[in-house]
């Protein structure tokens, strides 16, 4: 399925490389990526950046690709957060979303103490963006707090994808066809590395939180001190 999606993206980018529809494509895919984890938002942005860099007017087109991607990511995140806040519990109870229930509930349990870590890692983990924005809404994270993390994370992520897209274009010799291919290969590598780093940071943060817990804190359910029976007295 993914090779077909990548092939369609490459063909669409080649078709729209000198058209405003390129920015519409980038915006739409980045927006839809908040709800459809199969949409390769990072690959689309890198591919479009590589193609824009090889176009007849590279500088403004690369800038518009970046702005379109960030706008799409922002709108998608806000819509996903709003859906999670208003309808998240009912959606997770639906049988069609059973597979998404576990990651969303896990992200919700971590969101209050590790909001920044979760939202950063979600940009690199497959399906993480959907889980994180829904979890933020379900956990009732305030909109200002959510945006205070989501906006800069999206902006920095966009810069990173733009740089990698430009590298892909340079590696391919500014070829409109070769640039997207190089961008896709780089995207796969970056996603793998980013997923590992994000998971490691999240695990380290959780471990630190457990170690810093006060000694007198109540023990989790099922792990408390067992009552002493009358026979043991």
From TrEMBL:
Entry protein name: VTT domain-containing protein
Major localization listed first in the record, in broad terms: membrane
Keyword Disulfide bond listed: no
TM regions (residue ranges): 21-39, 63-83, 146-171, 177-200
InterPro entries named in the record: DedA-like (IPR032818), VTT_dom (IPR032816)
Source organism: Nakamurella aerolata
Region (Disordered): 211-233
Pfam families: VTT_dom
Protein location: Cell membrane
Membrane topology, record value: Multi-pass membrane protein
Domain VTT: residue ranges: 43-165
Top-rank taxon: Bacteria
Similarity annotation: Belongs to the DedA family.
Keywords, alphabetical: Cell membrane, Membrane, Transmembrane, Transmembrane helix
Lineage: Bacteria, Bacillati, Actinomycetota, Actinomycetes, Nakamurellales
An annotated GO cellular component: plasma membrane
Biased composition (Low complexity): 214-227
């Amino acid at each position: 399925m993914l090779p077909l999606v990548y092939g369609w993206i490459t063909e669409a980018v080649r078709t729209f490389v000198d058209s405003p529809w390129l920015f519409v494509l980038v915006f739409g895919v980045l927006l839809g990526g908040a709800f459809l984890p199969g949409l390769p938002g990072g690959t689309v942005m890198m591919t479009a950046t590589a193609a824009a860099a090889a176009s007849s007017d590279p500088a403004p087109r690369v800038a518009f690709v970046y702005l379109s991607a960030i706008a799409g990511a922002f709108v998608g995140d806000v819509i996903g957060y709003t859906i999670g806040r208003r309808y998240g519990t009912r959606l997770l109870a639906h049988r069609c979303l059973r597979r998404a229930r576990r990651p969303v509930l896990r992200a919700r349990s971590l969101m209050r103490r590790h909001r920044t870590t979760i939202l950063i890692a979600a940009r690199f983990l497959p399906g993480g963006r959907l889980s994180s924005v829904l979890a933020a809404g379900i956990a009732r994270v305030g909109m200002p707090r959510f945006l205070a993390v989501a906006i800069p994370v999206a902006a920095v992520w966009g810069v990173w994808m733009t740089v990698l897209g430009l590298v892909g274009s340079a590696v391919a010799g500014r070829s409109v066809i070769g640039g997207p291919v190089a961008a896709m290969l780089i995207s796969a590598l970056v996603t793998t590395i980013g997923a590992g780093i994000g998971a490691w940071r999240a695990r380290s943060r959780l471990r630190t939180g457990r170690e810093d817990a006060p000694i007198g804190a109540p023990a989790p359910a099922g792990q408390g001190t067992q009552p002493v029976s009358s026979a043991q007295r």
